[in-house]
Amino acid sequence: MSDQKKGISRRRVLKTGLAGIVATGVAPTIITNAYGFTNEPTGSTVKFGFNVPQTGPYAAEGLDELRAQQLAVEHLNGIGDGGMLSTFSSKALKGNGVLGKQVDYVTGDTQTKSDAARAAARSMIEKDGVVMINGGSSSGVAVAVQGLCQEAGIIFMAGLTHSNDTTGKDRKANGFRHFFNAYMSGAALAPVLKTAYGTDRRAYHLTADYTWGWTQQASIQLFTEQIGWETVNNVLTPVGAGDFSSYIAPVLNSGADVLVLNHYGGDMINSLTQAVQFGLRDKQVNGKQFEIVVPLYSELMADGAGANIKGVYGSMNWNWQLSDAGTQAFVKSFGEKYGQPPSNSAQTCYAQVMLYADAVERAGSFNPCAVAEALEGFEFDGLGNGPTLYRAADHQCFKDVLVVKGKENPSNQYDTLEVVEITPRAQVEYAPNHEMFGGDEATLGACNPGA
Amino acid sequence: MDAIILQVLNGLDKGSAYALIALGLTLIFGTLGVVNFAHGALFMLGAFCAVTLQRLLTLSFEQIDPTQKDFLGNPLKVQVPYVDSWFGPDVGAFLIDWSVPIAILFAIPIMLIIGVVMERGLIKHFYRRPHAEQILVTFGLAIVMQEIVRLFFGANPIQTGAPGVFTGSFDFGVLIGFGPNAIIYPYWRMVYFLFAVVVIGAVFAFLQFTTFGMVVRAGMADRETVGLLGINIDRRFTIMFGIAAAVAGIAGVMYTPILAPNYHMGMDFLVLSFVVVVVGGMGSLPGAVLAGFLLGILQSFASMNEVKSMIPGIDQVIIYLVAIIILLTRPRGLMGRKGVMEE
Amino acid sequence: MLGLSAKDTGFLLFVTFLTLATPILLQPFPETSSLAQFNAGYPDLMQRFAIYGIFAIGFNILFGLTGYLSFGHAAFLGVGSYSVVWMYKLLSFNVLPGLILAIVLSGVFALLIGYVSLRRSGIYFSILTLAFAQMSYNLAYSVFTPLTNGETGLQVYTSDPQILMGEGSTQVPNLFGLVMQDSIKLPVGDWLFTFNVGYYFTAVIAIFVFYISLRIFRSPFGLILRAIKTNRTRLSYAGINTRPYMLAAFVISGMYAGLAGGLLAAMDPLAGAERMQWTASGEVVLMTILGGAGTLMGPVLGAGFIKYFENIFSKINESVLHDWFGALPEPVRDFLIAIVSPFVGDGWQLTLGLLFVLVVVFLPGGIMEGARRIGSIFRRKPAAAEPAKLPETPPAVAGDPAGE
Description:
Chain A is an alpha/beta fold. Helix content of chain A is 34%, strand content 18%.
């Protein structure tokens, strides 16, 4: 707070003519969003905004993201063991803040609603003067806040958002996504499913009836049909339905032998639990064992679904059990601080903070356009996902994708998922104008520094 | 045909939950005239009674197992439940496995106490206040209850499974001449339906065949006259509030294996249960039960692929659509009494 | 003046003054102090105060006067927002066509829903309105995605036609070039005041619609609405058909909601489906009751109260608490943080819930009742000519609910 006063008085006075009305120590500064760039930090600190769901269905996810973000700030400021700073391939960050400024942060509650998320984000931008907003746990919110940051002229580092649209038809020049997407899930999962369940399978999709659900379903259908599977049916289910029994009950009699649950969070916990309760996985259909697939997993979902996930395949952006140096460093410092391993959304949020700070350091400026330029086409390693590219054309990270399976015999309460395969990056890449990503029409637009 | 039977079955257990919540809500409306927006929260508290009992039963002490490692690479601390060491692993495992049904015994006294305390401590001051203020105070209370639960249990849903013998499903189709897998129905849902029938029957029998019930019914019909006869109707109404809370609570307990409980599940049920009560008709217990099952079954039908392909999105709005149609054709819902909550 | 009594004119001037001075009044703490956390004088929140104030004023015309409790007013809020964003997409970023469409369209919607719902009264009416709004929400979230963009919310794309946009047209919401998000910042000593174009735009509209609501409250039409609340049956015995009056009140309040929704999109060009959810309908009910149903000023205060907690308390995290209590000895500090932290940050709803209970228990009649009590402490005669204290409708009489 202490730097704010100084900061404002230094800002460019646009209409000095107004100074005439100033008689008694009042110094008016007219700011019609036309100085260097939005919220240019001028004091000894710089503020980041962490906008995560703190109430509502994804509050647990949001809490874990917040922990990771706080840890990242500590590491940037040189507190603690530095985490992934030591393994990050770029050595621009020195643990002395960013561009010599100490990092401070504010938090907000998205409530997993586009509206509330925009309100929280605007408050961070207008009241607290943040230069970057990070986090979130839903694609709708990510797209909404990304749009806002584009208009306001600050950088948005997306948290957990898996819809193709975030870097597809809704991509923005000021927005960046580290998390993987539905298309990558499909590309990574299909070969593993082929090995595990064969090529002659009939799939039945239950899909959450909103944009993320649709893009995931389309992606999974595309790739499973490429390995020879047939799609029997795709049933759209209301979000937050709670009881999915009337959608699950007809599955067995439809001739399908695989159920794909395109659900997330509480919906996935309920639909999977209920499918298991219906005894689907004990049944034989078409002479084959009936199987369930959950394309997008998270640790918190696995925890909520308990024993029901045993043997169920899915995909993840990252998992704490990976053996690379970056992962180990991160899990160690997170585990020592909070007493539990980080979730994959926590890792994404941590990595996004680091990537932003590093880009600022390399660009030598907080100007969002300079930062965006530093991030575009940036190749790095050591943040837990192996060699990674921030693609310039759509601001999507390309890295290895994990195919995981619910563990049969967990050794402790965090040991719920096992990594089955690390799908190499080349296998999940696609053209920036792929039709599932808005085709040729999708453009980033011009970078907006808010000037 | 098999698809229709299947959806009737699915509707029955959905309807059971609606009916149980609506029953308690109607008891409170009918006896106390209070619009209780905290009723969903009572259902949620019941569910968390089951979670608490499961936590208590699995309360463990740590034993270091040097053969295994935890996520930071230190020797793993293995949790051994106290019940295992007290009663031996067999009985211990049985208790933990059956924690949900056992939680009913645990939940009834707790929910009775919560109900009575709520009524004596807060609700009774609102009998003569406008409905709007009743809504505000009970809604505030509901938020407080769910936030307290979140403080203790976190926001992530908590899996509370049914006893092992009830996992899996029963093949009804084979029984009545369809092919295998045509009509399957999970055992636990059957249990839930039977449980709901028993509870509903018990509440009706209690009101119908006991003196206490008779007085309460008389009080619902004409509170003042009953008061003039020198009967302390207030005490009985307090007890009825406790019973309504207990009914909501045990409905929540038994629902946990179907829906992993989370802190905001009460709010999800709140709106729906109000619709059920109103469709059933204000002040009518049979109406509430009937509307619960009716809406449950209709919702299941609307979820059928054949119906959904004809009218996209119908499963998302069916309950509200039916509510509108019923309220427009029958002014006081299915079995509502004249003058109740019409002001 | 303006067809108002001297007392009402004074009241209107008082409200106008409060509204225009909001950017100063809401910024009581210097930027350097740690209490600056509680300042609310930034554009987004001030705009929200004004917009939800409009929403609540309109809701109060229906609920406060007639006692009919609608649980579906969020549907009109959503219709208003979608109208404005669609006008951005089709015409240009000028907010005026959208706002006009928002009022008209939500009026039409209110006419349809009101015509059907007003066939019933009491809780049956509430549930009918709730059902319509929930249907709108569920459909907007999923099936109507081509129209509403579903979960993500409706927004403007570069590929949209925007037929009135020229080369140099403003790319953000504006009123004939007056950009809504522009602000003038004025540092005075350690204080910093932000005067935002969008806020003053909504504030002027808010004062205007407040004036209309004042006129309605004082008009014969308003009197009939109050009579409906007191005794509808007697009114019909007197030969007055109450339905047209009710419907008019419903449509007017629906148009207020549509205007509020439109303004939300005028300040921030995105319309999310959650705006139509029952929680949003419930929120305006809570705002009105919390502030004091049937009073002119109460609903606005209630709206401000709830939005303040949502936006300010949710941002107080542990590191802020550490800043506050940092100077204290460690055990005291940790104790205080442990006590306070459940009520702030992610626990903001707990505080709000507790306050709902406390306000309604100790102040039947809402915040306005509190203001009146405080006023009566300072003044001998509680009914003195304080403009904020207007003659009010008596609190709704629930009757003997069980005995009827």
